[in-house]
């Protein structure tokens, strides 16, 4: 491996997928919710974090709005 590389002569290009990269965050989620997605994970074979991301992405893409009502 070379100690130094001549980058301009390598003709670098930007990663076309850079805008789609995921960002790691910390979020508090109820234990029951995590258990639900873990059950779904066992059935589908997909990691539960992926399932949560897919669900949230669907909400964002379809502009779903949460409607809350409070019982008094």
Provide a concise account of the structure shown.
This protein is mainly alpha-helical and 72 residues long. It has helices at residues 31-44, 48-61.
Class per helix and strand makeup: mainly alpha
Series of H and E elements: HH
Mean pLDDT: 88
Tell me, briefly, the overall form.
elongated
Low-confidence stretches: none
CA gyration radius, whole angstroms: 21 Å
Distance between the termini: 70 Å
| Proportion of residues in extended strands | under 5%
Helical residues, percent: 25-40%
For the biggest sheet, the summary is:
none
Count of strand segments? 0
The helix tally amounts to: 2
Spell out the blueprint of helices and strands:
Layout: H1 31-44, H2 48-61
Helix pairs in contact: 1-2
Give a verbal description of the structure.
The protein is an all-alpha fold and 72 residues long. It has a domain at 30-63. It is built from 2 helices and no strands. Helix 1 (31-44) crosses helix 2. It is elongated, with a radius of gyration of 21 Å. The model has no long low-confidence stretch (mean pLDDT 88).
What distinguishing features does this structure have?
72 residues, mainly alpha, 2 helices, 39% helix, 0% strand, elongated
């Amino acid at each position: 491996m070379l100690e130094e590389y001549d980058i301009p002569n390598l003709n670098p290009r930007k990663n076309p997928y850079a805008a789609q990269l995921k960002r790691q965050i910390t979020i508090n989620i109820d234990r029951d919710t995590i258990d639900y997605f873990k059950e779904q994970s066992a059935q589908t074979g997909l990691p539960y974090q992926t399932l949560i991301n897919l669900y949230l992405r669907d909400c964002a893409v379809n502009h779903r709005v949460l409607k809350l009502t409070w019982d008094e």
